Amino acid sequence: MKAYEFTSESVSEGHPDKVSDQVSDAIVDLFLSRDPTAKVAVETLTTTNRVVLAGEVRTNNGTTVSADEMIAAARDVVKRIGYEQEGFHWQKMDVNCYVHGQSTEIAQGVEAGQGLHTEEGAGDQGIMFGYATNETPEFMPAPLVYAHQILERMAEARHSGASPQFEPDAKSQVTLQYENGRPVGVNAVVVSTQHKETASLEELRELVRPIVAGVLPDGWFPPEDKFFVNPTGKFVIGGPDGDAGLTGRKIIVDTYGGASRHGGGAFSGKDPSKVDRSAAYATRYLAKNVVAAGLADYCEIQVSYAIGYPEPLSIYVDTFGSAKQGVTEERIAQAISQVFSLSPKGIRTHLDLQRPIYAPTATYGHFGRKPGTDGTFSWEKTDLIAELQRLVN
Asked: Would you say 303 and 342 are in contact if contact means Cβ atoms under 8 Å apart?
């Protein structure tokens, strides 16, 4: 299609599912801060004044993390988000911890020298996708970039006190018009935000308006009849009190907003030995470097794994017909295999993933973020450009 619309959505840090993701990743970071080789798979359920933690963990260096420490981590997350409501309050909520030790049968399949292979194997079977596009400076799909940024700025206004009418739970949705594969304008914006009882719909609309206008390119603000703020009306009861939350239910928000395929695995709550997480980061890293190197306008990479086996079973590259003259997908696939090891150990080593760096990933997307000096978002670096250009051209 030469002309089409495409829509992506985002959810705020106070959305019930994102509260769950943040708690799970806080626990991952807690374990990795004690033992960089810790194995963690923790799920979180949030509902009215209750948080439930479940999963399996293992440390290898003799350190432990107690149930009380995990419960305290959950309370800290909810406090930081800003939940002090009757139906969900960081101090008053009940937190139940059902986290237990990892199965020895899983351990024997993924630890180096314990399974059928001498090298460490993948933590699970599965398929993972990474994607990049040059339609934004972040090398991300534009609708998702704008949807994330709207909610980030609303959260900043809430935390700073500039817009105390906002409460933590919110969602955004941005529809862009595309011509010949490039975004040319905005057709619709939807923002739904939890709010104080005293705030009127018109007041909320005018609080949201400058935030949306500040995110979108000049001249792209949608027509008034396509600018929706709380289209259902009153939204006072929200967060886990209004709807239960679970870890891993916002995988499209976490990745590419629907612009790319998804293997189905979630990220939050998993240590980097799980290829659901680490291989998704690795394929994003490789796809971004391919596009940043000017080899293609779009790039999607798929890998697949078998539990306990150390190497990917397949590597697939798709540039959607956007590869530059003389560049083939086969040559790109060969090049990425030369510059990067896609074994679980190779991924963790190259991207330095065995660190407590995951809490920031649990809100506003795992991709399109700026790499931090503390090792956060290392998969967003573009340090393979020269080598890929040399190997492919």
From this structure: yes
Catalytic, 244? Answer yes
Question: Phi then psi for 74, rounded to 5 degrees?
Answer: -65, -45
pTM of the entire structure? 0.94
pLDDT of residue 310: 85
User: Could you say which DSSP state residue 120 is in?
Assistant: P
- 3 state SS of 95: strand
Question: What is the full DSSP assignment across 162-218?
Answer: S-TTEEEEEEEEEEEEEETTEEEEEEEEEEEEEE-TT--HHHHHHHHHHHHHHHSPT
**C-alpha–C-alpha distance, residues 246 and 376, integer Å:** 24
Among the options 249, 277, 288, 348, which is catalytic?
A: 249
Catalytic residue chosen out of the listed positions 6, 15, 35, 259: 15
Selected catalytic residue, list 58, 148, 274, 277: 274
Which is higher by pLDDT, 371 or 103?
Answer: 371
Our answer to whether residue 249 is catalytic in this structure is yes
- pLDDT single digits (tens) 109-153: 555 555 555 567 676 778 999 999 999 999 999 999 999 999 999
Distance (Å, whole) CA 260 – CA 13: 23
Q: Quick check: is 17 catalytic?
A: yes
For 56, the enclosing helix (H) or strand (E) is strand 50-58
Given a cut of 80, whether residue 63 has pLDDT beyond it is yes
Quick check: is 276 catalytic? yes
Q: For residue range 160-208, list pLDDT tens digits in order.
A: 999 999 999 999 999 999 999 999 999 999 999 999 999 999 999 999 9
203: left (phi over 0), alpha (psi -120 to 50) or beta: alpha
Catalytic residue among 56, 69, 111, 119: 56
Catalytic site includes residue 271: no
pLDDT tens sequence across 297-342: 999 999 999 988 888 999 999 999 999 999 999 999 999 999 999 9
DSSP per-residue letters across 348-382: HHHHT-SSS--GGGGSS-SSSPPPPTTSTTGGG--
